[in-house]
Design a protein that fits this description.
The chain is of the alpha/beta class. The chain has 8 helices and 10 strands. Helix 5 packs across helix 7. Bound molecules: zinc ion (2 copies). The site of one zinc ion (ZN) has 5 residues, from loops. The site of one zinc ion has 5 residues, from loops.
């Protein structure tokens, strides 16, 4: 595995291990590029703190820690600072403004909720209604069209639903638009390892047919999950099964503003 851009830290409250352990595992396993992309702190106007994100009070600490390790390990591995973020239309400008002073290098989209968490929280990682895949598809494509996201993590998150024609059409819309925007889709190692509902074969069959660029992402919440050999092996089986076009690195970019 040349690069992994999807790595968490303990600040999100559901990951384990020190940054140093993630980095050293990556080095041991021959990873050349390691990106930290913890769940972005979100500056909701009502002060709401999501339980699964870096709390706002720890943003500075996250940035400083990763920046220092980047320098310390510069001759052994390339380290990058990013965030995993949802696209909430109503608050997106606010988020970018909030992050602007910090030297982060990229956002990956990880759309855990549609609408937004404070007006209408609809969590996409569990059982979802039949209307959710299309709502999700429209919202994520609107988000990807901003050009603010480097790639799209676990694009098939809302797959725990009745996967009828509506689901398939929504997923095909995502794949076609992502292709047109030249945004890679992530085959998510956390879902693979835990045998979650994503990655979903129905989705990746479409992505293979459409010809999307596909990137592996560890979504590491524990140091062992960085370039885990068994998970790489199962990802490669998915690649063969669906004829996926895998790229091993991406060009990182900050949002436009
Ligand atoms: Zn997480
Ligand atoms: Zn993640």
């Amino acid at each position: 595995m040349y690069a992994n851009y999807h790595t968490h830290t303990t600040r999100c409250n559901h990951a384990r291990g020190s940054e140093r352990e993630y980095i050293e595992t990556a080095i041991e396993r021959g990873v050349r590029v390691l990106g930290f992309s913890d769940h972005v702190p979100y500056p909701f106007p009502n002060g709401h703190e999501s339980g699964f994100r870096v709390p706002r009070a720890l943003l500075e600490d996250y940035v400083v820690t990763v920046e220092n390790l980047k320098k310390e390990y510069a001759d052994q591995i390339e380290i990058h600072l990013g965030f995993e973020a949802e696209y909430y239309p109503k608050f997106h400008a606010l988020l970018l403004e909030y992050l602007k002073p910090y030297p982060y290098e990229y956002l990956i989209m990880g759309q855990h909720f549609i609408a937004n968490e404070i007006d209408e929280p609809i969590y996409c990682g569990g059982k979802v209604g039949a209307d959710v895949p299309w709502r999700y598809a429209r919202q994520v494509i609107e988000g990807l069209k901003t050009g603010d996201f480097t790639y799209f993590a676990h694009p098939d998150l809302p797959s725990n639903t009745e996967r009828g024609q509506d689901y398939l059409d929504a997923m095909e819309y995502i794949c076609r638009e992502a292709l047109a925007l030249d945004i890679p889709l992530e085959l998510n190692f956390l879902g693979l390892h835990d045998r979650r509902v994503y990655p979903c074969h129905d989705f990746w069959e479409i992505a293979g047919r459409v010809g999307n660029k596909v990137i592996f992402g560890c979504d590491a919440h524990d140091p062992w999950a960085v370039a885990d050999p068994a998970t790489i092996e199962s990802a490669e089986a998915w690649v063969r099964q669906h004829g996926l076009q895998v790229i091993d690195r991406v060009r990182l970019h900050r949002p436009n503003m």
